[in-house]
Structure formats: C-alpha cells, structure tokens
C-alpha cells in the first residue's frame, strides 16, 4: 500500500512539474513575440505591411490602414500607399498638395493636414475629388484663402478654421449633403451668401471670430448649434431662429447687439437650451422661452431685472427652466431682483449678479 501511494505522489508531482515547465515556455515565447513585434514596429521593412511605408512616416503593423507623418518638419507630402484610410500630416511645413497626392489611396477616410502652410494657389483643384469615402478633412491653421474645390460628397466633418478665408462663393460647399460639422472660426469671413443651403445634415456651424456684419441666412433646418461670437453683429432678424426648429445652442457673445437690433423676440423659440449674449450692448433682458436652461448676459449694460422676459405668467406649468443665469458686469444690483422671482425661476441653481 505504502509503495503504491508513493508512486502515485511522484507521478502527480511530475505532472505538475511538467505543466509548470510548459507554462514557463509559453511565457517565454510570449515575451519573444512581444520583442519581435517591438522590432518590426521600429525597423522598416521587417513585415510586408511596412514595406511600402515612406521612410519619414510610421505605419504601425497593428493598425495597417493608418500612417503617421505628423510633427517632423516635412516640406512635401510623402507618397500614400493605396491601403491607407487614415493619414496624419499635421504640424509640418507642407505648402502644397498636388492633384495626384492621393492618386493611389482612394479609400482614404480621414486626411489630417492641419498646422501646415498650404495656400489656396498651391492646392490641386481635383486633389480630393476622387476620395469617395472621405469623411473628415482637417485643413485648419493653414494659409487658405478659398475653400478647396471639388470636395467629395461623402464629407461629414470639414475643418477650415484659422485660415485666410474671406468671401465664401455660394457654390463652395455644393452637394455636401452629409456634412454635419463645419468649422470656419478664426478667418476673415464677411459675406456668406447662400453657401450653407446645400448642407442638409449640418448640426454644428462655427463662424466665431470672423468679420460678419449680418447673421448668415439660408441655414439648413437640421442645425442644432451655431457659434457666432466675436463678429460685428448688431441685429438679429425677427424670424431668424424660428426657421431653425432644431436649434439648441446659440453663441453670440462679443458682438454689438443692442435692444434696438432685436425689436421682436427672436430668442423666444422652444428648442433653445443655451443662449450666450454676453459682452454686447444690451440694456434690457430680451424675452426668452421658458424652455431655456442656460442664459449668459454678463458684460452688457442691463439696468433692470425684468421677470416678464422669462415668464409672462406663473402657475403650475408656466415657469422658466433656467438653471444658470449670469448677469454680472451689468448695471443692476442684487436688490433689483423682484421678490416674486423664485416663482418664475424656480429651477435656477445659479443667478450671478
Ligand atoms: C500609383 O501607382 C502606380 C502603379 O503602381 C504608380 O506608377 C504611380 O507612380 C503611383 N502614383 C503615385 C502618385 O505615386
Ligand atoms: C503662411 O502664413 C504664415 C503666417 O501668415 C506666413 O508666415 C508663411 O510665410 C505663409 N506660408 C506660405 C507658404 O505662404
Ligand atoms: C451619406 O450618408 C449615407 C448614410 O450613411 C450614405 O448611405 C450615403 O452614401 C452618403 N452619401 C454620400 C454622397 O457619400
Ligand atoms: C414666448 O412665446 C410664447 C408663444 O408665442 C408666448 O406665449 C410667451 O409669452 C412668450 N414668452 C415671452 C417671455 O415673451
Ligand atoms: C400658461 O401658458 C400658456 C401658454 O403661454 C397659456 O395658454 C396658459 O393660459 C397659461 N396658463 C395659465 C394658467 O395662465
């Protein structure tokens, strides 16, 4: 009996030793694999997928459709292999993009070219037209004086902020019916004509920090957010926001709005949730809808706290949904707030005066 027990114990011990060794080997080969991958990441031409990678770029084998060429003082666009979908060229000194730059990479989905020195006269007229899958184009912080021509209809996001754009011809964005975000801030845009009428899916339009003297018209009804701060706007047409049934966020700070410039009640529109009218020349609080939640009026010349701008009547259903109201930097004082204010502004968590 004793012998048998010992034999069984020994063989059990051997089995467990065996497993242990197997584990050790597995662990070693795992480490070797890790080192192998590490090598092929940094040394060119080890694996087939990095053979076609331009020397000045990185094409990680783990992400075979992406090519990273950003922040390395490039003056010219490198060749883009046909398998690429995402290419990153931002933060270089690239000044031109020839018509054939993406000739063999027609499957590109993202082209990132921001923070370069690309001028409109140095960008091919057809460079993007063959990219039928292009969804995002980043050209912000360049030297563009015109919107590039022949943009593909597949675009969803177009970034053109911090350039030298002035006038936008009415056909500049023709056919971009899938575009949801258009970033045009920090340019010198004065006249927008009917340029936005094509953009049937537009959700966000950023035109802040330009030279607009008139709010853009012909905006698509899909629009939810419009940023117009830091322009030269002094009036808002009566029905302006009523033509935008989905508008939720409106930024108009740092303009020249006066109460005379908004004679009717352009902001009394049910969809609006956030309205920024700070740093204008308002003397009275413009009437707003009871659905508004965030209202910024700091830095104006408001002299009275008119509760009628928020509630025409107060009862169980008629009260303001305002949560944050900023009135600091005006002429009114804390004791100008009428005593019945809490009945109307019953959801306000911050009233800053
Ligand atoms: C595209 O591919 C063709 C055929 O492989 C090649 O001849 C041509 O030079 C390539 N285009 C560019 C811009 O490199
Ligand atoms: C692009 O604009 C910057 C700043 O305005 C200027 O310094 C640079 O020379 C311009 N580059 C080209 C290629 O025109
Ligand atoms: C627009 O988006 C829809 C839905 O994703 C897609 O089916 C259609 O092909 C796109 N249009 C263009 C011109 O790419
Ligand atoms: C906003 O418009 C609605 C409906 O037209 C109206 O009943 C309400 O009194 C208006 N609100 C203000 C503050 O003028
Ligand atoms: C609440 O407001 C609505 C719309 O402004 C109005 O029709 C209704 O008469 C008001 N209710 C009361 C009790 O004043």
Explain the overall architecture:
The protein is low in regular secondary structure and 353 residues long. It has a domain at 63-159: Leucine-rich repeat, LRR (right-handed beta-alpha superhelix). Helix content is 13%, strand content 11%. The protein has helices at 2-42, 341-344, and strands spanning 66-68, 86-88, 110-112, 136-138, 157-159, 181-183, 204-206, 225-227, 249-251, 274-276, 294-296, 324-326, 350-352. The longest helix has 41 residues, at 2-42. Mean pLDDT is 87; it is low at 1-48. One 2-acetamido-2-deoxy-beta-D-glucopyranose binds at residues 79, 100, 103-104. One 2-acetamido-2-deoxy-beta-D-glucopyranose binds at residues 265, 268, 287, 289, 309, 312.
Please outline what is shown here.
The chain has a domain at 63-159: Ribonuclease Inhibitor (Leucine-rich repeat, LRR (right-handed beta-alpha superhelix)).
Helix content: 10-25%
- Total of DSSP H or I helical runs spanning 4+ residues: 2
CATH class of the domain at 63-159: Alpha Beta
> Which structural class is indicated by helix and strand composition?
little secondary structure
CATH architecture descriptor name of the domain at 63-159: Alpha-Beta Horseshoe
- Could you tell me which ligands this complex binds, including any ions or cofactors? 2-acetamido-2-deoxy-beta-D-glucopyranose
Write down how many β-strands occur, each being a DSSP E stretch of 2 or more residues: 13
The CATH H-level homologous superfamily of the domain at 63-159: Ribonuclease Inhibitor
Shape: elongated
Protein name: Fibromodulin
Keywords: Disulfide bond, Extracellular matrix, Glycoprotein, Leucine-rich repeat, Proteoglycan, Repeat, Secreted, Signal
Family: Belongs to the small leucine-rich proteoglycan (SLRP) family. SLRP class II subfamily.
GO cellular component, one term: extracellular space
